[in-house]
Amino acid sequence: MRPVFVIIDRMSKKNPCTLHYAGKETEASVMASTPSAPLRLVKTHGAPSDWTNMLIAGDNLGVLKTLIAGKEAGRVVNADGTPGVRLVYIDPPFSTRLVYRGTDGRHAYDDRRRGAEFVEFLRHRLILLREVMSADASIYAHLDWKTSHYVKVVMDEVFGPDNFLNEIVWSYGGRGAKAASAQFPRNHDAILLYARRPRVFNKQRREVSLPKDSPCIQQDAYGRWFKTAPRGDYTDASIASLEEAGRVHRTRSGRLRVKYFLREAEGRVIEEKLIGDVWDDVPDAMHIKASEKTGYPTQKPVALLERVIKASSNPGDLVLDAFCGSGTTLAAASALDRRWIGIDIGSLAIKTAQKRIKAGMKSNGTPGFAVYRAGKQT
Ligand SMILES: C[S@@+](CC[C@H](N)C(=O)[O-])C[C@H]1O[C@@H](n2cnc3c(N)ncnc32)[C@H](O)[C@@H]1O
Q1: Ligand 1 in contact with 124 (CB < 6 A)?
Q2: Which of 340, 327, 321 is nearest to 295 (CA)?
Q3: Which domain holds residue 357?
């Protein structure tokens, strides 16, 4: 069988590899040949304000072209006046070859695109997404082990390899689909993060609770709990100022270590850990509380989207999910006081997202939104 993809090493510093496959259009041709899809207002939920969140039913390709024009006209805008969306999260079909249904048996979507057809489908969207983004925006592409490597090469082409920041491993736990067969169980997704500079990035931390007899913590003469770490790259001058702040610890053998103070709560010691690129503390949607479950087949947990949104946007920033499904990103963005735009081609997705966000408006007082249908592409 003929290989579908070839990775060519061009030895260029800017972009060392490009992915070649049959039917790959140039970026210029993608931009020029994609028609925009006019948006027809279907319904508004909630009172009008200076910005109305948008849930759009239709193929994201034409909708993205329309949003580019909206950005240029200053309508697709963050609360601070910056045009374009500040954060994109996409969780597209993963080329699983499956047909997905809701828990009530209703058809959600087909995921049948394979090989080069799948990559080119996504590449067209990535090119348009780049144009909808603000100059300081971030994009997270949620993928799995089967496709992430192809999409990584394509994202290097579209966003530039220097703007690749992280491959986040979402290790969602469980036994994995292949637990019983002769291989390691598969229980992670890959989320690729690209952003230009300057960008919004808020470090995320999580609290870890330690028993007081944990061997990795100590108490000083004032009763303060602390952990230590090697001095690492600290210069002598930095060590001197840490010493003044009471943050230098000497071991019995005289080695110097840096102290990190910890909080005490309810009889335990709390450590604030910096979140790295392996996220193993967010269980998958099967293990979320019943009130969060929508019945949509590939729903992601709100906790995952909260982390993405908190890290790469600030209140008032505009968040776009171009494959929004049950509206997880939109619900999380609403609760975190961000503006949002969600797009999905499936009617079950739009119904589910609509119901979910309306429920949020009722229970948490989150802002209203308008539902649009993307018309015939022009
Ligand atoms: C993996 S699901 C997203 C799930 C979502 N993250 C959630 O938490 O519910 C992928 C979604 O992409 C949508 N989709 C597929 N092709 C699309 C297209 N061309 N335009 C817009 N949405 C599309 C599907 O209908 C499906 O809802």
Answers
A1: no
A2: 327
A3: 6-204+275-374
**Same-domain pairing of 137 and 215:** no
Q: Is 32 inside a domain boundary?
A: yes
Cα angle: 330, vertex 331, 336; to 5 degrees:
95
Pocket test for ligand 1, best of 109, 143, 284, 347 (most atoms within 8 A of CB): 109
Per the CB < 8 A criterion, the answer to whether 378 and 38 are in contact is yes
Q: Choose one of 345, 347, 348, 377 to mutate for the ligand 1 pocket test, by most ligand atoms within 8 angstroms of C-beta.
A: 345
Supply 336's token pair: 């975190």
- The 10s digit of each residue's pLDDT in 41-100 is 999 999 888 999 999 999 999 999 999 999 999 999 999 999 999 999 999 999 999 999
Q: List, for residues 281-296, the tens digit of each pLDDT value.
A: 999 988 899 999 999 9
Nearest ligand 1 atom to alpha carbon 294: 9
Cα–Cα distances (Å) from 206 to 194, 274, 276, in that order, read 23, 7, 10
Instruction: Enter the DSSP assignment of 178.
Output: T
Question: What burial class does residue 212 get, using C-beta atoms within 10 Å of its C-beta: 0-12 exposed, 13-18 middle, 19+ buried?
Answer: exposed
* Residue 234 burial (CB count, 10 A): 15
